[in-house]
Design brief:
This protein has about 260 residues and is mostly helical. The chain has one domain (about 1-260). It has 11 helices and no strands. The chain has helices at about 1-10, 15-30, 35-55, 65-95, 95-100, 105-135, 145-170, 175-185, 200-205, 210-220, 230-255. It starts with a helix and ends in an 8-residue tail after the last helix. The model has no long low-confidence stretch (mean pLDDT about 85).
Length: about 260
């Protein structure tokens, strides 16, 4: 199945490129700031959330910059949230194209994840500006960060396959997922340190969250200048790969039925 996905990418890479380019044109059409929004948005979100959570709720991260801690979580989670939302609707939105021309249906959720992934790479610019501005500092362990990007991408693509499959059969999923992603946001330690959770059982359950594993891997490098432990490497990798494989299986098993739910 993974080999099949590689074959699809090799054969339809031009179409994939066109779909990604189309998404960029649609998103930034008639936009004055254009792609600059990809740099400005996370900074504005961080500023608002930092004011609210550090001053109103008194959240802090002793020993490290709270701004950097917050922006790492926002950057990673925002990619997942936006990409999974777009991937979920990608098959349904392209039913007219699927009915006219044969093409692998994998390509639609995949193109959305790549499109948002390019924006994600741009958001690393303000992240590193904050890292430098807050005195967090850089070290050679940052060379391991691309591993977390890959795991995040695999996890998101897998979720995109699962969500886009469900959305074909159950259109209510578009509304349900809005609730799910809101709950998921607060169950992922983005604005707060997981150590403030006093209940050890709840803390353990929250650590099973794949996004926690991936974000924690990045924070270990950026905030604490540590080379991630073997457990962190495994947790991050398993979080991405397992969901990716499940997503492929679910999508492949159901894709031939999509035509009956136009």
């Amino acid at each position: 199945m993974i080999n099949n996905l590689k074959y699809v990418y090799a054969k339809y890479s031009f179409l994939l490129k066109q779909l990604v380019e189309r998404d960029f044109k649609v998103k930034y059409k008639r936009s004055i700031l254009g792609i600059f929004w990809s740099l400005l948005y996370p900074v504005l979100m961080m500023a608002v959330m930092a004011i609210v959570f550090s001053n109103v709720f008194k959240f802090s991260t002793p020993g490290v910059s709270y701004l950097t801690y917050l922006l790492i979580g926002l950057t990673y989670f925002s990619y997942f949230s936006e990409a999974s939302n777009l991937a979920m609707s990608s098959v349904v939105a392209n039913f007219s194209l699927i009915n006219k021309v044969y093409m692998p249906k994998y390509i639609f959720p995949l193109s959305k994840c790549i499109f948002v992934g390019i924006n994600f790479l741009l958001t690393l610019i303000p992240l590193y500006i904050i890292i430098i501005a807050t005195g967090t500092g850089l070290n050679w362990a940052h060379l391991f960060l691309p591993y977390s990007f890959i795991c995040l991408f695999l996890f998101t693509v897998g979720m995109g396959f699962i969500l886009s499959t469900i959305a074909v059969f159950i259109r209510d999923m578009f509304y349900i997922y809005g609730i799910i992603i809101t709950i998921w946001t607060y169950l992922t330690p983005i604005m707060y340190d997981i150590k403030i959770i006093s209940n050890s059982t709840l803390q353990f359950l929250m650590k099973l969250n794949p996004l926690y594993q991936i974000i924690n891997f990045a924070r270990s490098i950026i905030l604490y200048h540590n080379v991630p432990t073997l457990g962190q490497w495994a947790g991050c990798g398993v979080s991405g790969l397992v969901i990716f494989i499940i997503g492929i299986i679910v999508f492949k098993k159901n894709q031939d039925k999509f035509i009956y739910y136009v």
